[in-house]
Design a protein that fits this description.
This protein is about 25% helix and about 35% strand. By secondary structure, the protein is of the alpha+beta class.
Length: about 130
């Protein structure tokens, strides 16, 4: 019996329950199977943060073995609407925490001070200040 995990090939049929209490979606895997999932809306942040954390661990593992950063053409992001943004002290010295209000949950990121300065400059240019 092969114990290798199936890889995600696509995600489809995403929907929110009418009362907003949960979301549901399907994950298709490279073995041709479709797997339905659902989770409470309050748990979406935990799932997203967990996956981002795993991605950070994978990046650290690649770099520790001398891996190069992924080419820009391979880095993609889908913009999602944000209701509000809050800034605060980061988790470590010289870090800035940026929290995004996504509606029923928040996503937060720790930025090194230099990255926060770059973001500040870019936002100033984007809004004409």
């Amino acid at each position: 019996m092969d114990s290798a995990p199936a890889f995600i090939s696509s995600m489809t049929n995403g929907a929110a329950q009418q009362d907003g209490s949960a979301v549901a979606f399907e994950i298709q895997t490279n073995d041709g199977k479709s797997h339905p999932f659902a989770c409470a809306t309050v748990d979406v942040e935990k799932m997203v943060s967990w996956l981002i954390g795993l991605g950070v661990l994978a990046d650290q593992a690649r770099k520790s073995r001398g891996g190069k950063p992924a080419p820009k053409s391979q880095m993609t992001a889908t913009p999602v609407p944000v209701k509000q943004v809050a800034l605060g002290a980061g988790q470590g010295p010289g870090e800035v925490a940026v929290a995004f209000d996504m509606g029923l949950f928040d996503l937060a990121f720790n930025l090194p001070q230099e990255a926060a300065k770059t973001l500040h400059t870019a936002l100033g240019k984007a809004i004409g200040n």
